C-alpha cells in the first residue's frame, strides 16, 4: 500500500539521499532546497549562487550534497553545520560526474573535457587529487573495481577508473594516475557498466551494441563477446536509461512500449510491457528506477502512469537461477514522467513531471509490545491497544501521520515528526496526558519517563515535555540512531558503533557503561532492543549496508555474539525479545537474492517472510530453534506461547483492507493448557534445553507431562532439530508402535537423517521427511516416499537424476499404478521403460483387454526384440511357423528360427540361415540334423562351428577320423585334449600326437613319461623349455640327467633353477664355465627361505666375481646388503661413472665406500679433470678420511711444483692439507694426536721453505740480488729431501739472476755446481737452452741427447 504526497512548488532537479529521507531540489532561481519525505522544506538558510545548477547529488553515507553550477564551480554543502565548501578548478559547465563506491572520491568532467578527481574528507572539505585535459570528448566514467564500503570508509582507498566518449576509445586510469588506452570500439559510447559477479566490463555504444571485456593486469581490455541489442525509435540515445535490475540483469528503457531485459547469465533477453498494452491505450516508458532493497522496478510512462514490478527469483531442479517479474502496483501523476528515483531506504519513490514533484511512500504499519500489552496500527491515524491476558482492546485516533509508537505498562507515546502525543490507559479508558513539540523520530517511553533522542543529545522528560535531565554524547561517539528501555535500563546506539547502557532507576540517570564495537564490522548501532531483564542487548547494522547479521551483546559477560543469516540465504528485517522468556529472541527474516539456494522440491515464484526462533546458549552462541512462515502477516512480537502479528482481511484491495491482530501458537505448544503457567514454564525450559543440546535437562522439564499431543509436538520438534534420540523416546511416550517398528526395521548402517525421515513420515511431516531424505542423499527411499504419496513425476525425476539403478523398478511400479487406474496406454509406456514389456504388455492385451488383434498391431509397430520373441513363441505354440520364424528373425533369435525350420522339414533354408547368421546355437541344431542323417563330415563341421567340440570329437572317435580328431582336440578344452591323447596312445599308438595333446592339456608329467618311454627326445627339449614349477621331482631329475648326459649344460642349469636347486646350478656354471647372465641371475630367488636366499645370492656374487661379471656381482652383493663388497666389485670394473653413482647412493650408509671411491679416483688422471678432483675431495670429506684428503692435497702441491713450478698454488694446497689434518685433532682421537702434531710440523716446515723460495723470486724481480742470493744459499744448506722444493729451481734462479745482471762468471760457476747436483737430463726443465748455450755450450749436446733419448723411449712405450 502506497500513499502519495504532492510537493508544492516548481523544481528543476531533484535527488534523494540514499540513506536518509531527505530530498535535495533546485528551483528556477538557481536556489537549492532540502525537503523531508512530506515535501516540507527543512533547511533554514538558502543555498544559492549567481549561477544556475547543472547537477546535484548526495554523498552515499553522510549528509553532504554535491552541487555543480553552470559556471563550473563545484560545491559541497554540509547539512550538519550548514556550510558550503567551493572549488573553481573547472571553468565551464560540468557534463558528467561519478562518485566512488564509498563516496570518498568524486570525478567531474566539464564540456571542455577537463577531468578532475576530488577527495571529500569527513568534514565535507573538497581537495583535488588528479587533473587531466582530454582532447577526446569524454562522456562516461566508471570506477573499477567495486570496493566494499564498510571496509574502506575510513581509509583513503586506492582507486582506478574507466573513461569513454564519442571517439569509441576506452581509457583506463590506474591507481598511480597513469592513463592507458585500453581498447577502441570505434563507435560513440553510450554507457559503461561493471558486471561484478563475473568481473566483466560492459560497453554499450550508440548503435546499441554491447561489448563484453575481460580486464587484464596491464590495463588492457580483452573482448570476449559482442551482442546486438534492439534499438529503440528514440533518436536521442543519450536519454536512454540503462541500469542493473538484478545479478546479471541489465534493463534498457528507450522510450518504447516495453522495457528490454538482458540476462547476461544466460544471454537471453525479453520484454516487460505495460499491463494495459492490449487495451488500446498504448503508452511508452520514459524513465525507470530499480529498488535494490526490495527488488522492485518502477517505470514511468508518457501518459503519467508509474508501474511497479517485483523481481522474483527461484531455482529449478538443476539449481539454475531463474527470474520472473510480477506486476504489483500502479501510481498516477499529472503528465509524462521525466525522472524516477527511489529513496528513504527503498520506502519512498520520487517522480518528476514538468516542474512538479510527487512523493510516493509505502504505508508502514507501526506496532509495539510490552509484556502483556500490544499496540498496533489498524489504519491511517488509528491505533488499537490490546491486553493479551484478557483481550481487552482500546482504540486511539490521531489526525497526524503516524511515524512511530512506543508503549509501556500504562502509557503510550505516538509521534509524527512534529509532535509527540503521550496518553495514559487502562483496560477500558485512555486519556491524553501531554503533547510535546519535537521533530525527533527516536523516542521511547516507560512508566516514569519519556526519552527523546536528537543528534548527540537524549532528553529525559516527563509526560508533559519538561526536560528533567539531558545526556549529551561526545562527537566522536556519533549521533544517536536507536534507543530502547527495559527494566530500569536505557540502551542507546550511535552512528559510530557506540553502545551506552544507562541506569534510570535513580532520580538522575547515570551512564553505567559505554562500549565501542571497533572489533566488529558494523556501520552503526541500529534497531536496538533490550531483553525485558536487561541482560541481553541486540542490534543490527545500518540498513544501508549489506549486512545480514544480528548481533547480541551480553551485558553481564561483556561479550558480543552474532548470527549470520546469509548462510541461510535470509536477511533480518525485524526482531523482538520475548516478553516472557528472556532467553528467546524472535526474528523476522526475508529471502535474499543468492546463488547458493539448496535444491527444493516445491518451488514457488515468491517466498513469504519467516519467523526464526533463536536462543542464547551458555557458551555465547546464538542457536536456531525453529522456523515458521509468516504468511504475509506483519510481525509484532511474542509472549510464550503465542506469536502476534497484524493480518490484512479482504486483502484484494490494500486501501480497503482491515487490519486485525493474529495470534498464532508457537511450535511445540499446541495441545497443552496455555493457562497453566507451570506447564508453560516446563515447556519453555524444554525448548531452551533441546536447542542448546542439553538432553537431560530437557527431559527433566517435561517428564511429568502425560499429554500425548505434547509428546507428539516434542517429537516433531526433535525432527526439526535432528535429535534422533529424543524423537525415539517421544515415539515410545506417544505409544506409536507402528513407527517404532518401522524404525527398528531400518538397517543400523542407515544415516540419522533417514531414520528421522522415517519417523517424520509417521508423524505426518511429509515436507520435513522429503528434506531429510534429500540431505541424506537417500534417493531410493525418497523415490519410494514419492511413490507412496502418488507423486510419480517426482519419483521418476529423482531416480533419473540421482538413482539410475532404480529407474526400471520405479517405472514398473508406475505401470502397476496406471493399470489399476485403468490408464492402460500410459501403463504400457511405463512397462516399456521398466524392461518388462515381454510379459506385462501381452498380459494386458490378452487377459485384461482380451484383444489379440491389438496385441498383434502393437508387436508390428514395436522395435522391442523381447516382445518380438514373445510373439514368435506365441505363434509357435499356435503352429503358425511362418509367423514364428519371421519374428524370431526380427528378435535376432536365429537359433530358435533354425529350430522351427528344422522341425518343419525345411533343412536347406535352415542351413542357409545358419550359415549367414554365424550363430553357434543354430549351427548346433544343423549339426544334430546331419548326425541324425548319418552325414558325419557335415555334422562334425557344424558342431565345430558351434564350438560343441565334445559332440564332434565323439563322432570322430566313433568313425575313426583321426585327422579331424587331432584338429578338433587342439581347438577344445584341456579335458578333451587329454581324452583324445589317451585315444592316440592306447588305440592308434600315435605317440607324438599323444605327447603333444598331453602337453597342451597341461598333463606335462604324462607327456614327459611318454617322451622317455618312446624316445621322443626332440619333443622333450621343446617341452622342457616351457616347464612350470609343479612338475614332480623324479621326472625333473630324469630330465636334468638327460641334458647332463648330452652335455647341454645351459638347459640343465635352466632346469636346476626351475626346480630350486640353485647351489647345483651355480656349481655347474663354475665347473663348465657357463657365463651367468643377468636374466639367469634374477631367477636365483628363494622367497620362502630368506636366509637360504641370502646365501645363494652371496655364492652367486662370488661366482660372478670369478667370471669377471663385476656389475652383476655388485648387484648381487647389494641385494644381500654387503655394499662394501659390492663397491669392491664395481672398482674392479673400472666403470668410473657407476662407481661415483654407487658411492653417492651407498656411501651415507657405509663410510668406507666413500674412502674406497676416493682411493680409486686418485688412480685416475685427476690432474687434468677438475670433476674427478672435486669428487675425490667430496668423497674423502663425507667418509671423514681427513688424513687421505691431506695426503691428496700434498700430492696436489707436489704436482704444482713438479709440473708447473707454481709454488704459490703449492702453498695453498699445503695449507688445505694442514686444515684437514687439524680436523683429525678436533675429532678427539688421542691415538692419532702425536702423529698429527708431527704431520702438522712437517707441513709447516715445507710451507716455510717454499715461502722462502717465493720471497727469493720476488727479490729477484725487484733486482734485490744480494738478498735473493742469501736466501738461496740458506735454502741450499737446508735438508730439502722432503720439502717438495727442487734444488734445480734454486740454482736456476741464482744463475738467471747473475746472468741478467752481467755476472757471467758467477753464473758459470753456479752452473758448474748445478751439474754436480742435478742430472743433465733435467737441465732443460730448469734452464732455458739458450742460457745453457751461452754459459757452457759443451754440455748442450748431452742435454739435448738426453731429451731426444727420453722422447724416443716415450714413443716406444706408447707404441
Automatic annotation (TrEMBL):
Question: Where do the IFT140 first beta-propeller domain residues begin and end?
Answer: 9-146, 155-360
According to the record, where are the WD repeats? 87-128
Q: Does the keyword Repeat apply?
A: yes
Q: Has the keyword Repeat been applied to this entry?
A: yes
Biological process (GO) annotations? intraciliary retrograde transport
List UniProt keywords, sorted A-Z. Answer: Cell projection, Cilium, Repeat, TPR repeat, WD repeat
One matching Pfam family is Beta-prop_IFT140_2nd
Listed InterPro entries: Beta-prop_IFT140_1st (IPR056154), Beta-prop_IFT140_2nd (IPR056155), TPR-like_helical_dom_sf (IPR011990), TPR_IF140/IFT172/WDR19 (IPR056168), TPR_IF140_C (IPR056156), TPR_rpt (IPR019734), WD40/YVTN_repeat-like_dom_sf (IPR015943), WD40_repeat_dom_sf (IPR036322)
The IF140/IFT172/WDR19 TPR domain extends over 693-1179
Give the IF140 C-terminal TPR domain ranges.
Answer: 1187-1314
Subcellular localization is given as: Cell projection, Cilium
Q: Name one GO cellular component term.
A: ciliary basal body
In this chain the TPR repeats are located at 808-841
Domain IFT140 second beta-propeller: start-end pairs: 375-567, 572-647
PANTHER family to which the protein is assigned, alphabetical:
IFT140/172-RELATED (PTHR15722), INTRAFLAGELLAR TRANSPORT PROTEIN 140 HOMOLOG (PTHR15722:SF7)
Name of the protein described by the UniProt record? WD40 repeat-like protein
Amino acid at each position: 500500500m502506497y500513499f502519495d504526497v504532492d510537493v508544492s512548488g516548481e523544481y528543476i532537479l531533484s535527488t534523494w539521499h540514499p540513506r536518509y529521507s531527505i530530498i535535495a531540489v533546485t528551483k528556477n532561481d538557481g536556489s537549492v532546497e532540502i525537503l523531508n519525505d512530506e515535501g516540507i522544506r527543512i533547511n533554514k538558510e538558502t543555498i544559492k549562487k549567481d549561477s544556475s545548477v547543472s547537477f546535484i547529488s548526495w554523498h552515499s553515507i553522510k549528509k553532504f550534497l554535491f552541487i555543480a553550477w553552470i559556471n563550473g564551480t563545484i560545491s559541497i554543502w554540509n547539512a550538519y553545520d550548514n556550510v558550503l565548501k567551493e572549488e573553481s578548478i573547472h571553468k565551464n559547465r560540468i557534463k558528467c560526474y561519478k562518485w566512488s563506491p564509498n563516496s570518498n572520491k568524486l570525478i567531474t568532467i566539464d564540456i571542455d573535457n577537463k577531468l578532475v578527481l576530488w577527495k571529500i574528507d569527513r568534514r565535507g572539505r573538497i581537495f583535488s587529487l588528479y587533473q587531466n585535459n582530454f582532447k577526446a570528448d569524454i562522456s562516461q566514467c566508471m570506477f573499477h573495481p567495486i570496493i566494499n564500503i564498510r571496509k574502506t570508509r575510513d581509509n583513503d582507498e586506492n582507486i582506478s577508473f574507466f573513461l569513454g566518449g564519442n571517439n569509441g576509445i576506452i581509457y583506463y586510469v590506474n591507481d598511480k594516475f597513469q592513463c592507458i588506452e585500453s581498447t577502441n570500439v570505434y563507435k560513440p559510447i553510450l554507457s559503461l557498466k561493471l558486471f561484478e559477479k563475473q568481473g566483466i566490463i560492459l560497453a554499450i555504444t550508440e548503435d546499441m551494441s554491447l561489448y563484453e571485456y575481460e580486464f587484464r593486469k596491464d590495463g588492457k581490455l580483452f573482448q570476449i563477446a559482442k551482442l546486438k541489442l534492439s534499438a529503440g525509435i528514440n533518436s536521442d540515445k543519450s536519454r536512454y536509461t540503462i541500469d542493473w535490475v538484478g545479478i546479471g540483469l541489465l534493463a534498457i528503457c528507450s522510450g518504447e512500449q516495453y522495457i528490454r531485459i538482458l540476462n547476461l547469465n544466460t544471454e537471453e533477453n525479453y520484454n516487460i510491457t505495460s499491463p494495459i498494452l492490449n487495451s488500446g491505450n498504448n503508452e511508452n516508458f520514459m524513465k525507470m528506477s530499480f529498488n535494490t532493497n526490495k527488488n522492485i522496478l518502477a517505470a514511468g510512462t508518457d501518459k503519467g502512469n508509474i508501474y511497479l514490478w517485483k523481481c522474483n527469483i527461484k531455482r529449478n531442479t538443476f539449481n539454475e537461477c531463474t527470474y520472473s517479474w510480477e506486476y504489483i502496483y500502479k501510481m498516477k501523476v499529472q503528465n509524462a514522467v521525466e525522472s524516477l528515483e527511489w529513496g528513504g531506504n527503498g520506502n519512498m519513490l520520487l517522480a518528476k513531471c514538468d516542474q512538479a514533484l510527487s512523493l510516493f511512500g509505502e504505508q508502514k504499519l507501526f506496532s509495539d509490545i510490552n509484556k502483556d500489552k500490544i499496540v498496533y496500527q489498524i489504519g491511517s491515524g488509528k491505533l488499537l491497544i490490546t491486553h493479551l491476558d484478557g483481550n481487552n482492546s482500546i482504540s486511539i485516533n490521531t489526525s497526524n501521520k503516524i511515524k512511530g509508537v512506543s508503549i509501556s505498562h500504562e502509557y503510550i507515546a505516538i509521534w509524527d515528526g512534529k509532535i509527540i502525543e503521550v496518553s495514559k490507559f487502562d483496560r477500558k479508558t485512555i486519556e491524553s496526558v501531554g503533547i510535546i513539540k519535537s521533530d525527533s523520530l527516536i523516542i521511547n517511553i516507560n512508566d516514569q519517563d519519556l526519552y527523546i533522542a536528537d543528534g548527540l543529545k537524549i532528553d529525559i522528560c516527563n509526560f508533559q515535555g519538561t526536560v528533567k535531565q539531558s545526556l549529551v554524547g561526545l562527537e566522536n561517539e556519533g549521533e544517536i540512531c536507536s534507543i530502547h528501555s527495559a527494566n530500569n535500563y536505557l540502551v542507546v546506539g550511535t552512528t559510530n558503533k557506540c553502545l551506552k547502557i544507562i541506569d534510570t532507576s535513580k532520580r538522575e540517570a547515570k551512564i553505567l557503561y559505554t562500549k565501542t564495537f571497533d572489533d566488529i564490522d558494523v556501520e552503526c548501532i541500529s534497531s536496538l532492543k533490550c531483553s525485558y531483564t536487561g541482560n541481553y542487548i541486540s542490534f543490527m547494522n545500518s540498513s544501508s549496508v549489506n549486512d545480514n547479521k544480528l548481533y547480541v551483546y551480553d551485558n553481564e559477560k561483556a561479550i558480543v555474539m552474532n548470527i549470520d543469516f546469509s548462510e541461510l540465504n535470509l536477511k533480518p528485517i525485524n526482531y523482538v525479545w520475548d516478553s516472557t522468556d528472556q532467553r528467546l529472541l524472535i526474528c523476522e527474516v526475508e529471502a535474499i537474492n543468492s546463488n547458493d539456494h539448496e535444491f527444493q522440491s516445491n518451488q514457488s515464484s515468491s517466498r513469504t517472510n519467516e519467523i526464526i526462533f533463536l536462543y542464547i546458549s551458555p557458551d555465547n552462541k546464538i542457536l536456531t530453534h525453529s522456523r515458521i512462515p509468516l504468511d504475509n502477516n506483519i510481525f509484532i512480537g511474542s509472549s510464550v506461547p503465542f506469536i502476534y502479528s497484524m493480518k490484512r482481511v479482504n486483502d484484494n484491495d490494500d486501501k480497503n483492507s482491515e487490519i486485525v491482530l493474529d495470534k498464532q501458537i508457537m511450535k511445540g505448544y499446541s495441545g497443552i493448557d496455555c493457562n497453566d503457567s507451570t506447564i508453560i514454564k516446563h515447556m519453555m525450559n524444554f525448548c531452551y534445553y533441546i536447542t542448546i543440546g542439553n538432553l537431560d535437562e530437557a527431559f527433566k522439564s517435561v517428564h511429568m507431562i502425560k499429554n500425548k499431543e505434547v509428546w507428539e509436538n516434542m517429537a516433531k520438534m526433535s525432527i526439526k532439530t535432528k535429535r534422533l534420540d529424543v524423537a525415539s523416546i517421544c515415539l515410545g511416550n506417544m505409544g506409536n508402535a507402528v513407527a517404532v517398528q518401522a524404525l527398528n526395521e531400518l538397517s543400523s548402517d542407515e544415516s540419522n537423517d533417514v531414520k528421522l525421515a522415517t519417523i517424520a513420515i509417521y508423524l505426518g511431516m511429509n515436507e520435513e521427511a522429503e528434506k531429510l531424505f534429500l540431505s541424506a542423499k537417500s534417493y531410493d527411499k525418497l523415490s519410494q516416499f514419492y511413490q507412496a504419496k502418488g507423486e510419480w513425476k517426482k519419483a521418476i525425476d529423482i531416480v533419473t537424476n540421482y538413482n539410475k539403478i532404480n529407474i526400471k523398478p520405479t517405472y514398473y511400479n508406475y505401470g502397476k499404478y496406471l493399470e489399476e487406474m485403468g490408464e492402460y496406454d500410459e501403463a504400457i509406456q511405463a512397462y516399456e521403460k521398466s524392461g518388462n514389456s515381454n510379459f506385462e504388455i501381452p498380459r494386458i492385451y490378452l487377459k485384461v483387454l482380451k484383444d489379440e488383434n491389438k496385441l498383434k498391431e502393437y508387436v508390428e509397430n514395436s522395435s522391442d526384440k523381447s516382445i518380438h520373441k514373445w510373439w514368435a513363441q506365441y505363434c509357435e505354440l499356435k503352429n503358425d511357423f511362418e509367423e514364428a520364424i519371421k519374428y524370431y528373425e526380427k528378435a535376432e533369435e536365429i537359433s530358435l528360427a533354425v529350430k522351427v525350420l528344422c522341425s518343419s522339414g525345411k533343412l536347406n533354408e535352415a542351413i542357409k540361415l545358419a550359415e549367414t547368421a554365424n550363430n553357434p546355437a543354430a549351427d548346433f541344431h544343423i549339426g544334430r540334423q546331419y548326425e541324425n542323417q548319418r552325414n558325419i563330415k557335415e555334422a562334425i563341421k557344424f558342431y565345430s562351428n558351434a564350438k560343441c567340440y565334445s559332440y564332434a570329437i565323439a563322432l570322430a572317435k566313433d568313425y575313426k577320423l583321426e585327422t579331424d580328431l587331432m584338429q578338433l582336440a587342439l581347438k577344445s578344452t584341456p579335458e578333451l585334449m587329454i581324452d583324445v591323447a589317451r585315444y592316440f596312445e592306447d588305440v592308434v599308438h600315435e605317440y607324438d600326437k599323444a605327447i603333444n595333446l598331453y602337453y597342451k592339456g597341461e598333463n606335462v608329467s604324462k607327456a614327459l613319461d611318454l617322451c622317455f618311454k618312446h624316445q621322443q627326445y626332440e619333443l622333450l627339449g621343446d617341452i622342457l623349455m616351457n616347464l612350470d614349477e609343479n612338475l614332480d621331482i623324479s621326472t625333473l631329475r630324469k630330465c636334468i640327467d638327460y641334458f647332463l648326459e648330452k652335455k647341454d649344460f645351459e638347459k640343465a642349469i635352466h632346469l636346476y633353477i626351475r626346480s630350486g636347486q640353485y647351489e647345483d646350478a651355480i656349481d655347474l656354471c663354475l665347473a663348465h664355465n657357463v657365463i651367468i647372465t643377468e636374466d639367469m641371475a634374477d631367477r636365483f630367488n628363494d622367497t620362502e627361505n630368506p636366509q637360504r636366499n641370502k646365501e645363494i645370492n652371496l655364492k652367486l656374487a662370488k661366482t660372478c666375481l670369478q667370471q669377471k661379471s663385476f656389475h652383476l656381482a655388485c648387484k648381487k652383493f647389494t641385494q644381500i646388503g654387503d655394499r662394501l663388497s659390492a663397491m669392491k666389485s664395481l672398482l674392479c670394473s673400472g666403470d668410473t661413472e657407476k662407481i661415483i653413482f654407487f658411492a653417492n647412493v651407498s656411501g651415507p650408509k657405509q663410510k668406507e665406500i666413500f674412502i674406497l671411491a676416493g682411493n680409486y679416483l686418485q688412480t685416475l688422471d685427476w690432474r687434468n679433470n677438475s670433476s674427478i678432483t672435486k669428487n675425490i675431495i667430496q668423497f674423502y670429506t663425507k667418509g671423514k678420511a681427513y688424513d687421505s684428503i691431506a695426503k691428496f692435497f700434498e700430492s696436489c702441491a707436489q704436482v704444482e711444483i713438479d709440473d708447473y713450478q707454481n709454488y704459490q698454488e703449492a702453498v695453498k694446497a699445503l695449507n688445505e692439507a694442514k686444515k684437514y689434518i687439524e680436523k683429525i685433532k678436533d675429532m678427539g682421537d688421542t691415538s692419532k694426536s702425536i702423529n698429527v702434531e708431527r704431520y702438522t710440523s712437517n707441513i709447516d716446515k715445507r710451507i716455510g721453505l717454499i715461502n722462502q723460495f717465493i720471497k727469493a723470486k720476488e727479490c729477484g724481480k725487484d733486482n734485490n740480488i744480494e738478498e735473493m742470493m742469501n736466501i738461496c744459499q740458506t735454502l741450499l744448506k737446508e735438508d730439502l729431501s722432503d720439502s717438495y722444493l727442487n734444488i734445480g729451481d734454486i740454482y736456476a734462479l741464482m744463475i738467471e739472476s747473475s746472468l741478467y745482471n752481467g755476472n757471467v762468471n758467477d753464473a758459470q760457476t753456479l752452473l758448474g755446481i748445478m751439474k754436480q747436483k742435478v742430472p743433465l737430463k733435467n737441465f732443460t726443465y730448469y734452464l732455458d737452452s739458450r742460457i745453457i748455450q751461452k754459459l757452457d755450450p759443451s754440455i748442450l749436446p748431452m742435454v739435448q741427447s738426453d731429451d731426444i733419448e727420453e722422447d724416443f723411449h716415450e714413443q716406444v712405450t706408447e707404441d
